[in-house]
Design a protein that fits this description.
There is one protein chain. It is globular, with a radius of gyration of 23 Å. It has a single domain, classed as Roll (2,3-Dihydroxybiphenyl 1,2-Dioxygenase, domain 1), CATH 3.10.180.80. The chain is α+β, with helices and mostly antiparallel strands. It is built from 20 helices and 12 strands. Bound molecules: 2-oxoadipic acid and nickel (II) ion. Nickel (II) ion binds next to strand 1 and strand 6. Nickel (II) ion (NI) binds next to strand 1 and strand 6.
């Protein structure tokens, strides 16, 4: 087969993201409502902030926002994780970062599958936060063995999904018909199944150990548990949610409201209690319920350098030492005040953030820069001072462990708070995954460096071309 008859991985990812959105809209109608609200707020924000709209257009990133979403799944075994990695690779999604959630009382560790590279992200930045259950954190050995046996029995991928993934690996891509089949087959893995794999007794035992364990072990597959659109003004969406019949969690996770958004701010609504049925001993079904799926929205800000991230982590920690957000939301305003106070130490203009080396920027020539020819290379600082080069924040494409823990907790319910000994195990995760996860900082630094190089090249190439 000729290579040019293959559909690009970016196109497969876009088709998959759209198919997933359609499926989730049908499964969880509140998601559709949230999408409408986010679209409305984004439109209003852009209409009111001409400068923002202009920069998003100039950096070629306006279009991706309305298409943008992330989902999350929780897997049960190493085999599922490594197969999932191969499936995502067909869509141009690779594991970036390692998140240890054990510290937050959630028995999983995770990575985010997402496109890497600027062009792929601009085309469609669909991401999936993917967690692997850690049965090693379950104290009850009998239950651990039983859960393990149940998980080993299930097959979360259709034969078609496996066959097409192998074909893509072997041939280096999929043609149009195969790509369409691939999207439909892979979607099955993410679908909701209301018939549990286990009986009501087993479900209860798993649930008593941890709600998350029941969610992973009791079902046929890792149903997508939320799909998150990106908003340009999360405070506004949060404030409007009740008007749309959606009750948000009390506090927005992540940094406080700022002029210059950093990293990621997220809020969610509680998981729905949904009817499911459990296997009976006599082969019939017994009605019950399960809570797993919820809604979330997010606002993305600038990607921080290791130095900026260090400052973020320190300030977040400081504010949480003063007030820890209670699960019931009772101290939400105290928490917000403490957070805002702590973050006064984080500069709030793009120029200061850049000068302090706290964030990653994409550099481009100004109109004046495009008209200018330089005899040789000059340093970036003077090019900016002379108005030849301008800079835009690079969007943070990843996740935050403390925020993720807050999202897990809020949708699992207040009773889910449980202490585990912190035990990050990236090595084990990577062995299970089958590859090492990519380092997020390398990725942002690479995009920044490429933009600097291209400015310098264009400024001096003008001379050579004359
Ligand atoms: C994943 C929670 C984390 C986020 O946006 O930080 C997450 C889950 O509940 O499975 O999605
Ligand atoms: Ni999420």
């Amino acid at each position: 087969m000729k290579e040019n008859s293959f559909v690009s991985a970016d196109d497969i990812r876009s088709a998959f993201s759209a198919a997933m959105s359609l499926m989730y809209r049908e499964e969880v109608p509140a998601y559709g409502t949230l999408m409408e609200l986010v679209a409305k707020v984004n439109e209003e924000t852009l209409a009111a902030d001409v400068a923002l709209k202009e920069r998003l257009e100039a950096t070629d990133s306006l279009e991706r926002i309305s298409e943008e979403r992330h989902g999350a799944i929780r897997l049960g075994t190493a085999a599922e994780l490594s197969m999932m990695r191969r499936v995502f690779a067909v869509m141009g999604m690779y594991p970036v970062g390692y998140y240890d959630l054990s510290t937050a009382g959630v028995p999983v560790h995770s990575t985010a599958f997402r496109p890497v590279g600027e062009a792929a992200l601009k085309r469609n930045p669909f991401r999936v936060f993917t967690s692997l259950l850690r049965l090693d954190l379950i104290a009850d050995e009998t239950l651990r063995a039983e859960a393990d046996a149940i998980l080993k029995e299930r097959q979360i991928f259709t034969p078609g999904a496996i066959e097409l993934t192998e074909k893509a690996e072997r041939d280096g891509g999929l043609d149009r018909a195969d790509a369409e089949r691939f999207v439909a087959q892979v979607l099955e893995t993410f679908r909701w199944h209301d018939k549990a794999n286990v009986g009501a007794d087993m479900y209860k035992r798993l649930h008593d150990a941890h709600r998350l364990i029941a969610d992973v072990v009791s079902f046929k597959g890792p149903h997508i548990n939320h799909l998150t659109p990106r908003t340009l003004d999360i405070d506004k969406v949060q404030a409007l949610m009740p008007e749309y019949g959606i009750a948000p969690k009390a506090v927005v996770e992540g940094p406080p409201t700022r002029k210059c958004p950093i990293l990621l701010r997220q809020t969610s609504f509680k998981a729905l209690e949904e009817p499911v049925s459990f296997r009976d001993a006599d082969g019939g079904w017994k009605a019950g319920s399960h809570t797993a799926r919820f809604g979330e929205i997010e606002q993305r800000g600038i990607a921080l350098t290791p130095k900026g991230r260090g400052l973020y982590d320190r300030l977040l920690d400081e504010s949480r030492k003063i007030v820890r957000p209670a699960a019931d939301g009772s101290n939400a305003s105290e928490y917000q005040a403490a957070l805002a106070k702590a973050f006064e130490a984080f500069p709030d203009s793009w120029a200061e953030i850049r000068e302090a080396g706290l964030g990653y920027f994409s550099y481009s020539l100004t109109e004046k820069g495009r008209q200018t020819k330089l005899p040789g290379r000059r340093d970036l600082k003077s090019l900016i001072a002379d108005g030849l080069v301008e800079f835009d924040p690079i969007v943070y494409e990843d996740f935050l462990p403390v925020s993720a823990a807050g999202i897990f907790q809020s949708n699992l319910g207040d009773g889910a708070q449980q202490e585990f000994v912190a035990s990050p195990n990236q090595k084990r995760f990577e062995t299970d995954l089958g590859v090492a996860v990519l380092n997020e900082f390398d990725h942002y630094a690479g995009i920044e460096q490429a933009s600097i190089e291209s400015c310098l090249k264009a400024l001096t190439a003008a001379v050579a071309a004359e």
